[in-house]
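Below is how a single chain appears once it has passed through the pipeline. First comes the sequence as given, then the structure the pipeline wrote out for it. We keep one example in the README because the format questions we get most often are answered faster by looking than by reading.
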Amino acid sequence: MTKRSLIAFFLFSCSKVVAQTDSLDLKIGQMILIGMPKAEVDSTVLEDVKQGKVGSLIYFEKNIPKSSSAFTSFKKMSWTYQKNAPIPLFICIDQEGGKVNRLKEKYGFARSITAESIGKSKSLDSVRFYAESTAATLAGLGINVNFAPCVDLAVNPDNTVIVKNGRSYSANEDTVILFAKEVVKQHRKFGVITALKHFPGHGSSKEDTHLGLADISNTWSERELKPYQGLIDSNYVDAVMSSHVVNKNLDADALPGTLSKSVIDGILRKKFHFNGVVFSDDMQMKAIISNYGFEEAIKKAIDAGVDIVCVSNNVAVADRHSVSEVHAV
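Resulting structure:
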């Protein structure tokens, strides 16, 4: 799916099609993904949505209504934001299953399992079942983007952020491609966009980018790019999420992937010919915010070729940033 067709899907899915606009705020808004503070419609976020100052929203566990009518309340919240947007919103979530699972059983949602468990089962029926269940649930909640599947290779058993959390299907790139295809297929059936992550590969790192810089220059191999290349070549990539890992093999200036023109524009765009949407990982992670500052990082990410920057307002150590602050950059 190309970037143009991805955007067109939303523009023509509504009865009200928004034509070209001269509004700079509206254009900038389409490049901003922001997290919400609570499990109900937030008046400040809603006003930003109405004015077109934000084009994408992301749900975390804190946004899940804690009631017996969680599904209905959640759906109503999504619909309220969506119907007030001048251009259809990307409403996003990280719903990989297992550890990265916002829609937990305790809130009344179906059980999920880790990618590692599915990979070890070697069962395509299993990945199909869980992916279909996830996609159907997301569509029912008004969520149209899932930041999944994780296509990082489990190459470092001591990797804390991916491998030890069971987020990788396998250390074998062909296995990862096989299972990721099924995830994408099932989501497409329900009109939910998937975003492969974390480009150009986070499975070999020793450090966690949530907590600081992760330099994979000595542990990374080109094998980690194969899931992206294989899935792009076979038309199974709707969107990609960048990673903040540093890889001097790919960027001589040692910039994190999200901020690297060599990585995003050079490899993903030009070498792999990917024309879809590129989301950044959270710009408030310590790998970014502690080393580059918020404004500089946003500018570098956009210059690198990132289409939509994620400001989750979900990191405990981060200051909350408003949509207006992002526009001011």
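Residues 195 and 240 are 5 Å apart (CA to CA).

See the next section for the split statistics.
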